[in-house]
Specification:
Blueprint: H1 3-15, H2 21-38, H3 49-62, H4 71-78, H5 83-97, H6 103-119
Length: about 130
Amino acid sequence: MDIQALEERLSILLDSEVITEKSAKICLDAFQRLVRRLGAENIEGSEMLFTHLPTAISRIERGEEIEGPIPELMEEVRQSEWFNEAMAEIRYLETIHGKPLPPEEIDYLLLHYTTVFSQNQNRSVTE
């Protein structure tokens, strides 16, 4: 996914009122940060991450809750070599969001971020 594809996706979600303006801005910021970290304009396999992220932020803003992924899946995610990088991105999201994210949302974001890092592992991951 590149920035143009993300902007189109966010526009559709905004027009259908699935996400909020704030969540779209946070998502764009997170995408641009990841582009810099990976050193690539096109982030492979990031569609699920950058669909889940703005919907998660919007759910949080609306006070909606979700059930987290199954524990067995999360155990696998926590063993990922990309876990620390994924957690760093989530901590950044919490900073720009201005408050902590619920554990269930963190788990889904960990799942998506570790997948994206894994699929883009041949690119440079910088701090």
